[in-house]
Design a protein that fits this description.
This protein is an alpha+beta fold. It is built from eight helices and 17 strands. It binds zinc ion (ZN). Residues 1-23 are annotated as: Disordered.
């Protein structure tokens, strides 16, 4: 570790305007040193980090980086980090998301921009661009007995034998009210309770309380399929099985999401956090995921896509044939 990197000492004196926390996710905790104001901000941050919980530091590490603007703010194993004193909540969330992306990758876990839904023995990864309709499709699947397990970010693990597994995700489940009212008019009242009309512009609601998390100790579900969605108004859904290369590209794009975010106030580039060796590992894991599971791409209304997915899973006998043209 060079001098520009994080010095981790055994016992640093604590200043009252800073705090130390252990952020626990799927693996060993990440030690954080940051502004004391974070203490009040955790409830707004944690629902957007995968399977995260936070406690006052008990790991014994005290990270003290001092003021090094533009310098390294995390250690090489992504086990400790320092957040700048004036960091705003949303930027702290983005920085932590990128750090956890790397920390999990170091443990062989992919972080995917995706919603996971499960029913019985099946769990499906829903991929799609921002605003592409992952959440709407998850709600349409909910009407068919599927349970959303992660709202926006999902961790996927790769057991030595067997299919990739869902290893947890973000608990927040944020809907765009206007989109729910437009695409799911018959069910919107279930999700927009207490609201007479959706907020016209940027109305968003977190409805995660409608989807209680699985009880602790529930085994992590095996993934059955990947569905890339783009919701639009055509009534009859178009479903295709893209070739291996396109499937890999789409999974790879979803796996880089946490690095491609732009911070609002604190000027820090997130992409360089990922070391080249980790990027290569991400290429390998995303290729494995795309090869291991049936991959479908869907266009249509959320309900039409949901119905087609149920049909595909009912009739599955391995990977579907690629659509011919
Ligand atoms: Zn600690």
């Amino acid at each position: 570790m060079n001098t520009a990197e994080l010095a981790v000492a055994g016992s640093q004196p604590q200043s009252p305007d800073h705090g130390d926390w252990d952020l626990t996710t799927a693996g060993e905790p990440l030690h954080l040193h940051g502004p004391a104001a974070l203490g009040d901000a955790w409830p707004r941050i944690l629902p957007h980090l995968p399977v995260a919980a936070v406690n006052p530091c008990s790991c014994g590490r005290r990270a003290d980086l001092g003021p090094v603007p533009g310098g390294q703010w995390f250690d090489e194993r992504f086990a400790a980090a320092v957040l700048p004193g004036a960091v705003e909540t949303d930027d702290a969330r983005r920085m932590l998301g990128a750090l956890l992306h790397c920390r999990h990758l170091g443990q062989g876990l992919l972080t995917l921009h995706s919603v996971v839904v499960a029913r019985g023995d099946d769990a499906v990864l829903l991929l799609g661009g921002h605003g592409g309709g992952k959440t709407l499709t998850a709600l349409a699947l909910h009407a068919r007995g599927w349970q959303p397990l992660s709202g926006d970010i999902s961790l996927v693990g790769f057991p030595r034998n067997g299919a990739p597994r869902f290893r947890g995700g973000t608990s927040g489940f944020v809907i765009r009210e206007e989109a729910v009212a437009r695409y799911l008019p018959d069910r919107a009242h279930l999700y927009l309770r207490g609201k007479n009309a959706p907020t016209p512009s940027h109305g968003k609601t977190d409805i995660s309380s409608l989807f209680p998390p699985p009880s602790p100790g529930t085994p992590s579900p095996r993934l059955s399929a990947v569905l890339h969605v783009r919701v639009e108004t055509r009534e009859s859904a178009v479903i295709e099985a893209p070739g291996q290369h396109l499937a890999h590209s789409l999974v790879y794009q979803a796996s880089g999401r946490q690095l491609d975010r732009v911070t609002r106030r604190h000027p820090v580039a997130l992409r360089p956090l990922e070391p080249a060796a980790y990027t290569r590992r991400r290429l390998v894991l995303t290729s494995r995921l795309a090869a291991a599971l049936p991959f479908w791409s869907a266009l249509g209304t959320p309900e039409a896509i949901a119905a087609r997915l149920d049909g595909l899973l009912a009739g599955r006998s391995g990977r579907p044939r690629a659509a011919t043209s």
